[in-house]
């Protein structure tokens, strides 16, 4: 049996292949950090002052909001979230900031509120199925269930009418 030395050309090639496999394997388990949404600049956010700024100045300073409230007062929301995931696992929020700019009826800034990750609701679904109303039908029932139902009573079909008279109005 032949042995390889790390000083031989074959030994160096095997050593290089082994090290590259180790590096590539380890890089698949790195943490992935992503940023979603608005990039909050603390200096710009702190420059928005209630009673001084209005919609136009807020848009000039912070830009367009992530979304605007649809009901009630027209509040502007700027949402920023930092996510972290390990390899192929589901990403988890690490940090979140929701900046709400409230306006008075005249369009001036009334307040600037910040909310964090503590405001996120954690929902834990029960089971692996969503309950629905209606019938339990299999795939075959869905595909072949309407065969023979064309023109059946109550389905709005035009056949088999019970007109007793000879005229178009039953007379």
Summarize the structure in words.
- Strand 3 and strand 4 form a beta hairpin.
- Strands 1, 2, 3, 4 and 5 form a five-stranded antiparallel sheet that branches.
- The chain starts with 8 loop residues before the first helix and ends in a 27-residue tail after the last helix.
- With 171 residues, it is α+β, with helices and mostly antiparallel strands.
- The protein contains four helices and five strands.
- The model has no long low-confidence stretch (mean pLDDT 77).
- The radius of gyration is 33 Å and the shape is flat.
- The protein has a domain at 37-119: Beta-lactamase Inhibitory Protein, Chain:B, domain 1, CATH 3.30.1450.
Task: Record keyword descriptors for this entry.
23% helix, 4 helices, 171 residues, flat, Beta-lactamase Inhibitory Protein, Chain:B, domain 1, 5 strands, alpha+beta, 23% strand, 5-stranded antiparallel beta sheet
Give the structure's gist in a few sentences.
With 171 residues, the chain is an alpha+beta fold.
C-alpha geometry: flat
**Given this structure, which CATH class of one domain is correct?**
Alpha Beta
Mean pLDDT, rounded to whole units? 77
Intertermini distance: 108 Å
Give the % helix. 10-25%
Question: Biggest sheet: strands, sense, closure?
Answer: 5 strands, antiparallel
Mind telling me which CATH architecture of one domain this is? Answer: 2-Layer Sandwich
Query: How many helical elements?
Result: 4
The CATH topology assignment of one domain is Beta-lactamase Inhibitory Protein, Chain:B, domain 1
Order of helices and strands: HEHHEEEEH
Organism: Sphingomonas bisphenolicum
Keywords: Lipoprotein, Membrane, Signal
InterPro entries: BamE-like, BamE_dom
Protein name: SmpA/OmlA family lipoprotein
């Amino acid at each position: 049996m032949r042995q390889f030395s790390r000083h031989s050309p074959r030994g160096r090639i095997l050593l290089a292949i082994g090290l590259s496999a180790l590096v590539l394997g380890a890089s698949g388990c790195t943490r992935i950090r992503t940023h979603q949404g608005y990039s909050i600049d603390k200096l710009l956010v702190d420059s928005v002052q209630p009673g001084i700024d209005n919609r136009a100045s807020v848009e000039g300073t912070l830009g367009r909001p992530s979304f605007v409230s649809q009901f009630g007062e027209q509040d502007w929301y700027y949402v920023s979230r930092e996510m972290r995931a390990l390899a192929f696992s589901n990403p988890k929020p690490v940090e979140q900031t929701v900046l709400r700019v409230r306006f008075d009826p005249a369009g001036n800034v009334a307040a600037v509120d910040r909310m964090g990750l503590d405001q996120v609701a954690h929902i834990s679904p029960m089971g692996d199925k969503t309950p629905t109303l209606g019938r339990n039908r299999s795939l075959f029932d869905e595909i072949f269930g309407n065969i023979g139902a064309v023109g059946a009573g109550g389905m709005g079909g035009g056949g088999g009418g019970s007109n007793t008279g000879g005229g178009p109005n039953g007379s």
